[in-house]
Predict the structure.
Amino acid sequence: DEYRQGYALRNDIIYFVFDDRLYDAPAPLEVGITGTFSQWHHNEMDTKWLLKRIDDHIWVLAYENGKHKIHTNEHTQFKYRVNAYDEDGYFTMGIWAEPKDTPHNFRNNNFVFVGHHQALWLKPELRRTRGIWLTNYHCPRSLDKNDYRLTNAKQETLDIEALIPIEENITLIVPETDLEPHKSYYLSIPSLNLMAQCSHEAMFRELYSSKELGANIGFDGKNTVFRIFAPRAEALKLYLYRKPEDENAYATHDLKMDDQGVWEIEIKENLKGIYYDYTVHGEIAKGNHFYEIEPVHISDPYARVMTDSAGKCRIWERETPAEPLKIGIPKMEEVVAYEVHVQDFTENLPVAPELKGTFEAMCLEGLRNEKGASVGFDYLVGLGINVLHLMPIQEFWHYSDEEWEKSFKNDDFMQKMGVNMQNYDWGYRTTHAFAVESRYRNPKTEHGDQRRSFKKLVQKFHEKGIAVIIDIVPNHTGENIEGVDRTLNFNGLDKLYYYRTKNLDHIGGMGNEVKTENRPMVQRWLIDQCKHFIEEFGIDGFRIDLAGQIDKQTLKALVAALGKDKIIYGEPWIGSDDPDYENNPSWDWYKHDSPITFFQDEFRNAIQGGTHDVYDKYRDRGYAGGNTSFREAVKTALANHYAEEHQPNIGISYLDIHDNWALADRFAVSESNGMKGVEEDRYKIAITLLLTSVGAVVLHGGSEIMRSKGIVERQQTVKQTINATKIYINGRRDTYNLKTPNLFLWENVGKNQTDGAVSNFQEMYEFWQGLIKFRLSPKGKVFRQSERLSGDYYRWIEPENRNLLGYFIDNQVFVMINVGDYEDQFHHIWLPEGKWHLIGTNQKIDHLKGVENNGKLEAIFGEKHHNFPIPACGLRIWLKEE
């Protein structure tokens, strides 16, 4: 029975057990496990999740599960994957192992834990001033009011008037005296040693206001209105300061609350440039972070300007947005997005020191490196992309320079990584969603100038026909990271409203989870921040970080509010740690029912092998790396014929992205370090497969010049401390807080091996440039399709040698790939009618003039058979003349 159910439990040890006789899968060489506890990773080679063979058919992984790292209940799902040789003798990686007979614990195509830890728990909910709706789980229900105890936050006992059964496990509890909806009450069953706080869900899910939140100067410029949502607060005070360093306010005001939980005050002055913050006052009770418990000032979550993530807010006027794109926002099928981080892109540019790491540097024209090659803005415009995808630019958490330098100034490793004097970060820890990141402004300008310079950036790219989208992080905030709780805004306003919690504490792998479901004002917060950046800056869309943790209904509301012309895509993986969320199909979602375009990781896995380290070059780098078992998966990827994609734009295709291994390191000559050289032909095959697929694509900035993270160790995890806080330094795959590995090395632009460079940087840039321009040209319309393709739109040429793959796209483009180490030939290929030009080889792509092969331009005619020789690790692209 344990073999069939896939696991066994012995005290604090989970034995994952795999009997290969019980599954429809080839005889495994390796068996790995993946599931909700590992975010459904696809890294079967990670030894942490690799099973060991203990006899001819049985594989086991003993997992020490102290403190229940894996919850052994029906909410935890898992499944097995195997690496094996298929029936044709080819090594195949990552095959899902399907049980031959359905086990008793196989639900929704996954294993679950069952029959264990059926915890007794209560879920009481305040419904009215005289009503508590009690749901009890796995415990007997008594109708004797003496079996229950109702108390308030002062531990005073309140009498119960009546118990009314509603359903088998639902009871209406009527107290003798009125309750105050915003306060804390606790219901317990002493005989079962159970107690729970009465939740405020009934009130929370019905409160809504459309009033403008934040600090807003009137349209006539004569007044300033402050509004902030805090439904359980009992008082809220506003403090005004003339300077950001002032400790004492020059004025203090009490706000008043309306009947929807919005606190407000109107001051008959134009307060532009004045600094401000708040104190929020309320009941002393577990789960609250009001001033009476934590005597700190908090900031406005709707603030337009922050002096820093833990600094003061500043009052600022509304912006007039940048002019829209004259050609309109690219439709999803036309998107060739370029993901880039402001500091990475600008730190090494030849600009004044105060401009490094700023918006201003990112849009400066005329910059050149010592070789005379264009860098920065001109370089990016010349690449030909049509969407600039900026990594987070909303105000995000930074440790202060003073405390950071004190801890790391003389640390050799931190010096090498460029982070000994200042806290560098990618920004996936937003603290103020309406404020533009303060550290991206020119430090010689005033607080607030970052808004002007960001709008200028948008305008400059719009003038070049390039859309601008930003990466937003609405699923978790910087209030709870590195294991430290901070009271910046949401925690102090009402943690229980804004966040998902368990036992009144934060949950979530990223420190917290913002609660969008059953919270109309949190849903509105997400929509408001997006509309804010559209209406005040003119941006064209959003990438949503960990969108799988945002409920389906909120994402649908967002798409409806922003309009169909906006670009929106996000990550579908990594669900919530809240079982109520995960078990509600109206909230939880994945690829098959995605409300937005999602990152299609299966495309990435097929082409370059996924996110795991490279242990075996021919096995772990997908089809481009020589693993021919992926040829069928590549066909699905190119045509976007995934079951969950009813049209090509449901998923967005990509190869590498910020938190993956850099493409240069995956295809490195040695040691997964692209700084020592790159297998450039395989690298070019990978990008050719990406850019000759249908649907939207996103590129990782710097990959076009083989940007490598090789300066940092492959898999190291180093822990430093800053004021007793652990700072996690991860390996080469995830360099989110290490500056040096992420920087653009502008000196490489224009260099080839003839210049003594380790790689052909300029040739690679021009290769990507040629492919992008071809894709976005009138001829490249064959790739920019919005409807699901007919079965013959991609016509496949599949020689017996699986190193070879050819494909015609709409009989207009013919691509040939050889991932083998030896020259080969496509035999007897019938070309459709017309004149065909060779436009792409391993050296160059030029759809306008064609490219030379053996010293001459090539053109051939169709309606006849041809043989096409192709070199080792070679590619050829042919284009039919109109």
